Amino acid sequence: MRDADLWLRQRSHPPPRAAYVSRAATLYSLTRTCAQYRVPPVPDFTEVLQHLATREVGTLDDLLPHRWHARHAPEAGHPLDSS
User: Fold this and answer.
1) What's the confidence (pLDDT) of residue 16?
2) Contact criterion met (CB below 8 Å) for 71 and 62
3) Cα 61 vs. chain centroid, distance in angstroms?
4) Residue 34 · residue 41 · CB < 8 Å
5) Nearest CA-CA partner of 33 in 7, 4, 68, 59
6) What is the mean pLDDT of each run of 10 residues along the chain (83 residues)?
7) CB of 55 within 8 A of CB of 76?
């Protein structure tokens, strides 16, 4: 088999591991974004997943991590709110 054919075959059928690496990179990026904005990742992910299917496309920006504190401002005494 020629090198070009081998390269094309590998590109058309990526190894299953590539999907796991991509998912892991996505989760890492999301958790680091939460950390940057001092948002607890698990409650944020839970809320996003609960509202994702029911929200209009135009309102999905409200679920971004940098807007988490605005949605949860009334919750007094949260350990991450004390700066």
Assistant:
1) 67
2) yes
3) 13
4) yes
5) 68
6) 55 65 87 91 91 86 86 60 47
7) no
The residues, ordered by sequence, that sit 6+ positions from 73 with a Cβ below 8 Å of its Cβ are none
Asked if 54 and 66 touch (Cβ cutoff 8 Å), the reply is no
| pLDDT given for residue 71 in this prediction | 81
Contacts of the segment 4-10: beta carbons below 8 A, 24+ positions apart: none
DSSP state of 21: H
Task: Give the integer Cα–Cα distance in Å for 26 and 20.
Answer: 10
Buried b (16+ CB within 10 A) or exposed e, 4-41: eeeeeeeeeeeeeeeeeeeeeeeeeeebeebeeeebee
